[in-house]
Design goal:
heterodimer; A: STM4215-like; six-stranded mixed sheet; 6 strands; B: mainly beta; Pnp Oxidase, Chain A; five-stranded antiparallel sheet; 1 helix; 43% strand
């Protein structure tokens, strides 16, 4: 079943913006891999029944192990996304995520977006 | 039997001719009268009578842009000097449990633009003055 609604619309726009930056966004965790950016499901506060104040977590995934090469890739990619005039990145932090059975060095970014249904 | 109330805002909120209920997160209106003192010599306390109607209130609106959107309508009503606000609890017929309140000739003096990185933009407006009426006639 394809996703619809304001959250899906925002996710599509984020994926498009990441594509435009030359990155490799994925929305299915099964496709998460090093050198991709996983767009996780959003959290949100409701302005009202029609408008959402939405936050998406982006996970920039680097190739293991978590050495300087991985860090260089992560902070460079985080800078690329932060510099986007489309995406409003409100924060970020280094994390380690498990993909399959492997620990992947990653950066978690929070992107803020508002959406109105009608 | 319990009575349940889902905690939404007003279902109808017409400001300057446009219904912004779907773009409003908070609305309040204080409607009343100036109190005129009518205390007489034999009273043992201050006594008052209603004078002129008083109207004041505020609304928090989503910052939408375009023709007939929040930003454009706010600018037009500020420029006009006064406007009409109509609100109703439910989008249903007027009734004693669904009164419609109309505020005529109220004024919004400023369009409060505010931008903050990473935060949802909204207009928090205040209105003052005018007259009000409450209709419960179906």
């Amino acid at each position: 079943m394809p996703a619809t609604g304001i959250f899906a619309s925002c996710r599509d726009e984020i994926v498009d913006a990441l594509d435009a930056l030359g990155l490799a966004p994925v929305i299915d965790p099964r496709n998460a891999r090093p050198l991709s950016v996983l767009v996780n499901p959003p959290t949100f506060d409701s302005f009202n029944q029609n408008i959402g104040d939405i936050r998406f977590e982006l996970l920039i995934l680097a190739a293991p192990p978590g050495n300087l090469d991985a860090e260089n890739y992560l902070i460079t990619t985080a800078d690329t996304i932060m510099a986007s005039t489309t995406l409003a990145v409100t924060g970020g932090r280094p994390v380690s995520v498990t993909v399959g059975d492997q620990q992947i060095p990653a950066y978690s970014l929070t992107v803020a977006v508002a959406s109105r249904r009608n | 039997m319990p009575t349940n109330t889902f905690l939404g805002g007003p279902a109808v909120l017409v400001i300057g001719g446009t219904d912004f209920a779907s773009q409003c997160s908070a609305f309040n209106a204080d409607l009343g009268f100036d109190l005129l003192e009518k205390t007489s010599f034999d009273d043992t306390g201050h006594m008052f009578a209603n004078g002129l109607q008083t109207v004041s209130g505020s609304a928090t609106l989503y910052a939408s842009y375009g023709a007939s959107e929040v930003e454009a309508v706010l600018n037009s009503i500020v420029a006009a000097g006064s406007t009409t606000i109509v609100f109703k609890k439910a989008d249903a017929a007027i009734a004693v449990d669904n009164p419609e309140v109309t505020i005529n000739g109220t004024s919004v003096s400023v369009v409060p633009y505010a931008y903050a990185y990473g935060e949802l933009q909204m207009f928090e407006i205040s209105f003052e003055g005018g007259t009000f009426s409450r209709d419960i006639t179906p």
